[in-house]
Input
Amino acid sequence: MRSSTEAVLEYLIVKILAGRDDIVRAVHDYFVNSVSPSSVATKYNLSKHQVRGYIQRIVEKTGSVVKARVLLKYAIPVVLKIKPVTREVNGYIVKCGICGEELPSQIMEDHIRKRHASLIDEYLESTVEIIKKSVTLNHNS
Ligand SMILES: [Zn+2]
Output
């Protein structure tokens, strides 16, 4: 069983790997910078409905908005350093840079979860370590 922290980190890491850093930036704006869902939607060219869905999924995983805010404040700058493994072929199709498969963009996250789980685990482990260090440093200063 993953902890709630790991569940959220995994959620964000898969989005980054699939090339959806826009979603990660959008939820950062909402939770950390307190930007409204409708402003976030406009800024990142997402629907308000989608933005609410992403927010809800993160709150479900962490258990509360306050916990989500604290975690994302530390986690998002770290996960944004991860490079996507996908490359856009055209408006609908993206290519997986690991296995070379070309798939519709909507199913790329599923593909990464199912086929490249070890890569997610590696990033999850290193992200947890970096966050632990930065939290410890902040507490000591
Ligand atoms: Zn692949």
